Amino acid sequence: MYELKMGLLLYTCVLMALLTLLYRTSSVARYYLKFIFFGISSCLLASAPIPLMLRRPRDPRNGLIPAHGIRLACRLIGVTTSLEGHENIVKDSGCVILMNHQSMLDLLILAELWPALDNCTVISKKEILYFQPFGLAAWLWGTIFIDRVKREHAQAAVNKTGETIRTRKARVLMFPEGTRNNKETLLRFKKGAFHVALASKCPIQPVVVNRYRFLGKHRFDDGHLRIKILPPISTEGYTVENMQELMDKTYKIMAQEVEVLTKEVDVGKKKKD
Length: 273
Known about the structure:
Elements: H1 2-25, H2 27-47, H3 50-53, H4 64-76, E1 79-84, E2 95-99, H5 106-116, E3 120-125, H6 134-140, E4 144-146, H7 151-168, E5 171-174, H8 192-200, E6 204-209, E7 215-216, E8 219-220, E9 223-229, H9 243-272
Parallel strand pairs: 1-9, 2-5, 2-6, 3-4, 3-5
Antiparallel strand pairs: 6-9, 7-8
């Protein structure tokens, strides 16, 4: 038994030394190791507080502990954040928060916004519910699951979400691009988020983040993310018939702000270098 324990200890030490060497000398290894660490730690940090969450199921406050843990985990892999625009946060009303979508690291953006904006929730595809124990944790902090295959179910969920936002003054976080996008320009916005906004009869709260310049093909350097909460956009006077005007207006505002924010971060980095 003693020899077995010593063997396991030696194996662990050799493995850790090898991983450390690869992390320091290989950008490809560093890329995969950082993402693996982020993925595993996010799942663990989200799931570990489940016993505490069971005391108040479907409560957005259940997401505060995982959010704090994810922020700490990201600092360990060299990603820091700053949050601006607190003065623009919608008061005394629910809202639909729209963000540009770039990477799985966007989970960090949610982790920053969750404690800053009261009564937050997210909309997710139903399949996430079956990814346990993360699915249970997501349900416990109030995630709204939509069945994308069955259109009538999705529309019912949109109507229910709109009612939740209006009556509970909830803040629903959504990615209007619908998929990850690391290009210089935003993808064309999908209609789902705007259907929710119109169903809720509440304002849209745009949030933008600078481009992840520290990420590339097999490259994951240290980096800083500036998150900016923009002034709300009223949905008053808009209906399904003229919803495209609202989409175009929101797209223009967010696209311009992403470009400005990214340029400012790029300039600041060059000055430091």
